Amino acid sequence: MSNPSSDQLYDLVITGATVLTGAPAGHVIDDAVIAVSNGRFARIEPAGAIGAPLRARRTVHLPGRVITPGLVNVHTHANLSMVRGVAEDLGFAPAYTPGIPQGHMVTPEEAYAIARLGALEALLFGSTLINDTFVHADIVTPAMAEIGLRVWSCGRIHDVDFSGVSVGRWDYVDAIGEKTLQDAIDLAERFEGKSGGRIGVQLAAHAPDTCSTPFLRRIARAAEETGLRVTTHLSQSKVELARIRERDDKSPPELLDEIGLLNERLTAAHCIHVSDSDIARIGKAGIHVAHIAKGNATGATIAPTHKLRAAGAKLALGTDNMHADMVEVMRWALAVGRIQLGAVTPDWQPATVFEMATMAGARAMGLEEEIGSIEVGKQADFVAFDFRQPHLTPATNPLGNLVHVAQGRDVELVAVGGEVMVEGGRPTRVDAEAIRRDAAAAIAALWKRAREG
């Protein structure tokens, strides 16, 4: 706790709420006072410890609300809202599925409109940082950041010709690889650390099967040369496993380990189809696993989260495709983990998945000193959920309510770096209806072209 002078003027003071700090000690503060100065948490204390009301440029009283750290979504594709409600039932990731809009079909103008829809959805549901990969990253990165949240973004890095993948043709083209990798490096030079530190880049190597082995080695060298972290899909499908076994006579984790990408600076989404030896290898490397609990379960798969965690892998959460509700993802992560165990255990509780959605996500992004918990000195990223509703009453255990029955739609207020970006459930910077309308038109055009072949 800090010891500020009694006449200090804060930028923002929040009173009356219950705060789930997300700090390692797991503090819950009832009737809390949060003071923000220069975009950072300056005080977090029970009201009874404060004495006289704090002076502030703005004070917001939020009784009946529960405040959490901003949620950190370590793996998403904002543009893939374009196949929402369809791709979930096809059994394959969109890039591998014929007959639906594909990334290579998306124009820059369409990417701009659709990505803003995805970013807005994420913000309204309480994510204050998303790690996004898809196409036209030079355009969508600042477009998403303008919505108000932190955006780590990168175009998908690959040397496969994606126009053939959905029909089983695997052509690796050097020119495609060089362009996608150079585009990512240029993106980092242009945006890394910009917008007040709210924009960043991770090198998004799409997947082991969509990158040739020599190209994966080139990505590993680029990561070392630039100091950028890497994100990828790993062991996400049986198609990937078969392709890497045929091409390299290895499993995908074995391949990445040999190349030098399997390390603590890697965030790998899925890790579903892994053998015991793969799990041991992943754990020894200490990678961050983006657990896509809902998306994977929708596709009839579950990552072996308990085995991965026991081996040493660090679990965080991502929404991946078609939706952006991290509260729902926490609930699915809790449920599918218990299904795997066949029991409710002390080490797989709401606090477990809450940590995955907050501090573990911050660690995966290399930002654990800046975000992920409500602690003095950290960036003031926080979310207020309105618990004054029948489905959240009684709030005997606020964290239990949050994970078991809350929804992203219960978010009332979101602040990023101390600036209120959502208030009363509405964005403060942008016109939500205009964004929805523009995205709907762009998606309709994409579907028309996809159906016409």
List keywords for this structure.
453 residues, alpha/beta, Urease, subunit C, domain 1, TIM Barrel, nine-stranded mixed β-sheet, five-stranded parallel β-sheet, 37% helix, globular, hydrolase, MTA/SAH_deaminase, Metal-dep_hydrolase_composite, Amidohydro-rel, hydrolase activity, acting on carbon-nitrogen (but not peptide) bonds
Our measurement of the CA-to-CA distance between the termini, rounded to an integer number of angstroms, reads: 62 Å
- Mind summarizing the main beta sheet? 9 strands, mixed
What is the CATH class of the largest domain? Alpha Beta
How many domains would you count in the coordinates?
2
Report the CATH superfamily of the largest domain: Metal-dependent hydrolases
The percent range for strand residues is 15-25%
Quote the CATH topology of the largest domain.
TIM Barrel
Oligomer: single chain
Percent helix: 25-40%
Number of helices: 16
Mean of the pLDDT scores? 95
Q: How many strands appear in the DSSP assignment? A: 20
Family: Belongs to the metallo-dependent hydrolases superfamily. ATZ/TRZ family.
GO molecular function: hydrolase activity, acting on carbon-nitrogen (but not peptide) bonds
Keywords: Hydrolase
Pfam families: Amidohydro_1 (PF01979)
Describe the fold and architecture.
By secondary structure, this protein is of the alpha/beta class. It has two domains: 9-69 and 380-426, Urease, subunit C, domain 1, CATH 2.30.40.10; 71-364, Metal-dependent hydrolases (TIM Barrel), CATH 3.20.20. It has helices spanning 108-124, 137-145, 162-165, 174-191, 194-197, 213-226, 238-248, 252-259, 276-285, 293-298, 305-311, 326-341, 350-357, 359-364, 398-405, 432-452; strands spanning 9-10, 12-20, 28-37, 40-46, 55-56, 59-61, 65-69, 71-76, 127-134, 150-155, 199-200, 203-204, 230-234, 266-270, 288-291, 314-317, 382-386, 411-416, 419-423, 426-427. Strand 9, helix 2 and strand 10 form a beta-alpha-beta unit. Residues 66-420 form the Amidohydrolase-related domain. This is Amidohydrolase family protein. Keywords: Hydrolase.
